[in-house]
Here is the input.
Amino acid sequence: MTTTTLRWGVLGATSYIATHLMPAIAQTPGCVLSAVASRPGRAAQAADAGGKFGATALPDYAALLADRDIDAVYIALPNTDHVDWTVRALEAGKHVLVEKPMALDEEGCARIEAAARAASRTVMEAFMYRFHPQQARATELLASGEIGELRVVRASFAFAIEAGSGNIRLEPKLGGGATWDVGCYAIDVPQLFFGQAPQQVSAHFHTRPGEAVETSATGTMDFGQGRSAVFDYSIDYGPRSWYELQGTHGTLTVSNAWAMSGEDGVLTVLTAQGTRTETVPAANHYQLQVAAFAEAVRTGGPTPVTLTDSRRAARVGAALTASAAAAGALAPTSDATVPR
Ligand SMILES: NC(=O)c1ccc[n+]([C@@H]2O[C@H](COP(=O)([O-])OP(=O)(O)OC[C@H]3O[C@@H](n4cnc5c(N)ncnc54)[C@H](OP(=O)(O)O)[C@@H]3O)[C@@H](O)[C@H]2O)c1
Here is the structure.
């Protein structure tokens, strides 16, 4: 092991981490998966998940943070645990890659930023889709001017979670709800391409009967100067993973924006000259994300997903929730017969 090897520890042994992030860390040159920790009483889960990568199983999260042989920590705990464990990891001198949403409000992001500064450590929110080569190609096509100046971003992300599945996304006490899950991506894309926070947002939420969190949402963002975003997201409907950039001369569609599982990316450009489609070969964006984070740690340079991005995402997520709560209901009329 060289001094530049980044030794990783993982908090929580979820199946998502075991199938996506652990292999991504293990496959990245200069990175090694050293330890995995589960909550007390679940050591077998940590041993099972980490064992195939040669990682040590630790009996609780604090033990992993106390391990001096760990340089970086990956956190994919329930959303309500992201801020506290990220701050604790930074205070223990670790670099941190934390799952989206980094925080459920701006204050959480500010706590993380202060802890990272005090510890001189790197922290980044894991927006994995940004590391897929199709994302770079979409950015390049927009910059080429082919679709003109960007005016509208449309985004839609959905997949269905069964009622009664015990999924953390349906649990309000764990930061559940569509907004903090698939919504994070629909919130990030318009801000990424416009390069700024919106001036106004609005949203309508729908809660599937029997659930205690919003399961679907539609909304808009206003970026000023005629630039806007329209989006929807759901943890109740059939799969959708799509965004579209409409400019003054044409439209660029990314038809598999987030749910890439070894599939090629497909980008379609529509202009007055016609339609053409480009294919971007499949790539492991989880692994590319780990590599980019490790590079930022090594160089001490900026992370590709910045703390400003994370603060904006948290602020807009909270504002959408407030907007949905404040949305005015129209008085019932005789033609309002559509069942809710
Ligand atoms: N970027 C992506 O593609 C992607 C995909 C999926 C999820 N995520 C993010 O990853 C995070 C976790 O999502 P997930 O789907 O992996 O969740 P999950 O399967 O339910 O796993 C959450 C893990 O957190 C630990 N945990 C700690 N306290 C818990 C509690 N009170 N209840 C349940 N689990 C608890 C458990 O690990 P131990 O028992 O081992 O301690 C559990 O395995 C979320 O923030 C989500 O947004 C991102």
User: Anything to note?
Assistant: Residues 12-16, 38-39, 42, 45-46, 76-79, 99-100, 126, 128, 168, 174, 181 surround NAP (CB under 6 Å). The chain has two domains: 6-126, 130-283. Residues 260 and 282 are 8 Å apart (CA to CA).
